[in-house]
Design brief:
CATH class of the largest domain: Mainly Beta
Number of helices: 2
CATH topology of the largest domain: Thrombin, subunit H
Mean pLDDT: 81
Number of strands: 12
Strand order of the largest sheet: 1-2-5-4-3-12
Shape: rod-shaped
Length: 306
């Protein structure tokens, strides 16, 4: 078959229909038309809404990892911030509690100091204000150490009191500190006077270890009742008269003994005193004891002594 007789048209399998250029121009014009129609007449808005609704679940699921990561990061940041704020507030609360305690302590000390100053104005003799440093190391005694000593003119046997009443007396004086034996010490005794009846007695530290005094050697029929106030009698030459000492809290009258058992509560803060007043002992104000002269021997007329 001659070459000129061949059919040069492509077989049906390779036929492409409309050319690519034609398709490009058609779809470009269609796109421009749709854009103009969408801008002017919103013709694609319903279709866009339908597509957006159909794609919303897919978008929601695709955004979940990002949203969870952001929420986790925000939660961690807020947790750290909340913990830091809680620690800061706790520190502030502790500081405020400490300041509140200091304010209460200072208010208590100011009140006690004012009462001591008022007491000092009522006292006729000289006195020295002191502060309790610590309790004595001996667990079997009731003694405290104050911050005044020989340098401040403190003397042994000086009475010590707070704004409520007698606390004890100075039993040892050092250059800058002194030891005070409290009324409730078992080896201490103080003469007292019942302000209601005028009866005198001697109060001793309670041997049972309780912060009480025991008024000893009072007859079972003595006129003494619970609530009676005891003050210093001044007969010992140490304590000035009329200073409050204790209040009777218990009276036991038993038939098998001639003496009543009388327990008294000290009015001064025998436990927990902070600021005290040290007075000069009453013996410094008393006149000296008279000197008793020895009797002269009697000489007889014979020159002998009788």
């Amino acid at each position: 078959m001659p070459l000129g007789t061949f059919d040069r048209t492509p077989p049906p399998f390779f036929k492409q229909g409309t050319s690519a250029v034609t398709k490009l121009l058609f779809f470009s014009g269609l796109a421009v038309l749709l854009m103009v129609a969408d801008v002017r007449f919103q013709v694609t808005q319903p279709l866009r809404a339908v597509v957006a609704m159909a794609l919303y679940p897919v978008q929601w699921l695709a955004m979940r990892p990002l949203v969870i990561a952001e929420m986790s990061a925000e939660y961690m940041q807020e947790r750290d911030a909340a913990q830091a704020q809680a620690r800061e507030l706790q520190l502030q609360l502790l500081g405020q509690a400490k300041r509140a305690g200091e304010v209460e302590q200072l208010a208590l000390e100011n009140r006690q100091l004012r009462e001591l100053l008022n007491l000092r104005e009522r006292l006729s003799g000289p006195s020295v204000a002191a502060e309790v440093l610590y309790d004595a190391a001996d667990p079997y005694s009731r003694k405290v150490i104050i911050d005044k000593g020989l340098a401040q003119g403190i003397k042994e046997t000086s009475p010590v009191m707070d704004e409520q009443g007698i606390l004890g007396q100075v039993t040892q004086v050092l250059p800058f500190t002194s030891e005070v034996t409290l009324l409730i010490d078992r080896d201490h005794a103080i003469p007292v006077l019942n302000t209601r009846t005028g009866a005198r007695g001697v109060a001793y530290g309670e041997t049972g270890g309780a912060p009480l005094l025991e008024l000893r050697y009072m007859a079972t029929n003595a006129d003494i009742e619970e609530g009676d106030l005891l003050s210093t009698s001044g007969v010992d030459g140490v304590y000035p008269p009329g200073v409050p000492v204790a209040k009777v809290v218990k009276v036991e009258r038993r038939a098998d003994t001639v003496f009543a058992r009388i327990l008294c509560e000290p009015l001064g803060r025998a436990q927990g005193a902070r600021h005290v007043m040290v007075l000069d002992p009453l013996s410094d104000k008393l006149p000296p004891r008279p000197v008793i002269e020895k009797p002269q021997p009697i000489v007889t007329h014979k020159g002998g002594r009788r």
